[in-house]
Write a structure and sequence with these properties.
With 471 residues, the chain is α+β, with helices and mostly antiparallel strands. The strands form five sheets. Strands 14, 16, 17, 18, 20, 21, 22 and 23 form an eight-stranded mixed beta sheet that branches. α5 packs across α6.
Length: 471
């Protein structure tokens, strides 16, 4: 991507990394012109804090069927149901709100929500045993929706308590549920028909469509981008951004020798899964689109080993969100950063396509020399989204990531080594992403006195850029 302007303006297979995620109190801060806007911003910050801690503190594992526990239900902070948050608001350049989630208060609420969901799962599972084909399709879809909602509650219960939460016992595996449901659906020989199958039953309300991801990757492939475009045409009412939507429609898919299985979930503004849909896409439907991830190792390296701090936080987002991002040729995107304390940050970009890869420093500051890479956030700017400018999506296309490194103390002497590359116009750190990440995630000296420990934080943003296809 090219900088145009610069101005401030489900759980069953997750393994807890011992002692890293349990927290008694979590919070998020936000500003807005109205108190409601400030509360929404604070709640979004709280959800993002929880999301990145889950994302960076769980290991992803596969079972003996090759299924991964990660799903669309835990792909985005906006999809997490936040229950029991308390607000403390005051007028300050508009309104300022602090959203706090106390595990002692929240845990009983999540468990209370989980109980009737598991009761419904048992009832639907029992009803499926009567082999009444008239109701089988509806019951299978209902079971998938309930299981996904259970995943969300159990993920958060496990996160807040530090103890694994049992999944509901049912007579079918999720793979069997999907297979039975797909057997009742028509196979789609085109992406247009696949989109029409997935669009059935979606309400005529503003829906924000996220591109589907592989169950084992966050990358948006050309197949996922093409399917998203067809969904935008098939749904009656689509929203251009999450903020303008009543629902989000998020998907994941699996590839087999017979084609691709796609599952999409409709999620409301409170993070609740409302319904699910599946489609079987035949190979001829996507023969012109790559469906396999380009760089699965890049994805894994990027999203493991976050630098996290309970008090000092940094967030990185675009005007189109922070997860499941796809930008097409010519599209302009705003990049935004938020710190909750005064401090400094720099941004490293990582890019990879089928021909090359590199890591580089992004000019985020306003000074000369190395100062042009370091941005200082003062007390008046904390908890506010700071725009770093607009970016244009230009060739070469592929997978890109931005990694923000923040600290309370000046980072000018801690910038990784770089060199200017005349051919590309980048301030390169490395021609290899693993080396580039190694320069920003080197071993830190452990200090005995905790009061002397420098507070640092990190956030990452993964997105895909693609050539715009004719529709």
């Amino acid at each position: 991507m090219k900088l145009l302007t610069k101005r401030t303006t489900l759980l069953p297979l997750f393994i807890l990394l011992a002692g890293q995620i349990q927290a008694a109190v979590l919070d998020g801060e936000g500003y807005g012109e109205t108190q409601k806007a400030a509360q929404d911003d604070a709640l979004a910050s709280l959800a993002a804090t929880i999301f990145v801690r889950i994302e960076s503190s769980f290991e992803q594992q596969a079972n003996n069927l090759g299924e991964y526990s990660i799903s669309s239900s835990t792909r985005s902070s906006t999809d997490l149901p936040i229950i029991g948050a308390e607000f403390n608001c005051r007028k300050k350049d508009g309104y300022y709100c602090l959203a706090t989630l106390n595990s002692k208060r929240a845990l009983p609420l999540y468990r209370q929500k989980l109980t009737p969901v598991h009761r419904e799962i048992s009832a639907v599972d029992s009803a499926l045993k009567d082999n009444n084909k008239k109701h089988q399709h509806r019951r299978l879809k209902s079971l998938l929706q309930l299981l996904e909602q259970s995943d969300k509650y159990r993920t958060l219960i496990t996160f807040l308590s530090g103890k694994s939460t049992a999944e509901p016992q049912i007579s079918l595996s999720r793979q069997q549920i999907n297979e039975q449901l797909l057997a009742l659906e028509s196979q789609a020989p085109s992406l247009k028909l696949a989109a029409e199958l997935l669009a059935r039953g979606v309400p005529d309300a503003p829906v924000y469509i996220r591109p589907a991801t592989l169950t084992s990757s966050r990358e948006i492939t050309p197949f996922a981008g093409a399917l998203q475009m067809q969904l935008q045409k098939a749904l009656p009412n689509t929203a251009g951004s999450y903020e303008k939507a009543s629902f989000t429609y998020a998907g994941s898919y699996q590839i087999s020798k017979n084609g691709i299985q796609v599952a999409y979930s409709l999620v409301d503004r409170d993070g609740n899964t409302v319904s699910t849909s599946v489609a079987a896409v035949l190979p001829e439907a996507y023969r012109n689109y790559r469906a396999e991830p380009l760089a699965p190792d890049f994805d894994r390296l990027l999203h493991q080993g976050y630098a996290l701090d309970s008090d000092f936080k940094v967030q990185l987002a675009t005007n189109k969100g922070s997860r499941q991002l796809l930008f097409q040729q010519g599209e302009t995107v705003k990049l935004m950063v938020k710190l909750n304390r005064p401090g400094y940050f720099y941004i490293v970009g990582h890019a990879k396509n089928e021909q090359q890869e590199l890591s580089y420093l992004l000019e985020a500051g306003y000074g000369e020399g190395s100062r042009k890479f370091v941005y200082f956030v003062n007390g008046d700017e904390i908890n506010k989204w700071l725009s770093l400018g607009e970016f244009e999506t230009i060739p070469p296309f592929g997978i890109e990531s931005l990694q923000v490194i923040a600290a309370e103390k000046d980072l000018i002497d801690k910038l990784p080594g770089y060199r200017y590359d005349n051919e590309t116009g980048y301030f390169k750190l490395a021609d290899n992403i693993s080396q580039g990440l190694g320069k920003t995630r080197g071993l830190k000296k452990i200090k005995n006195n905790k009061t002397d420990q420098e507070k640092t934080a990190e956030a990452v943003l993964l997105f895909t850029t693609q050539k715009k296809w004719e529709q």
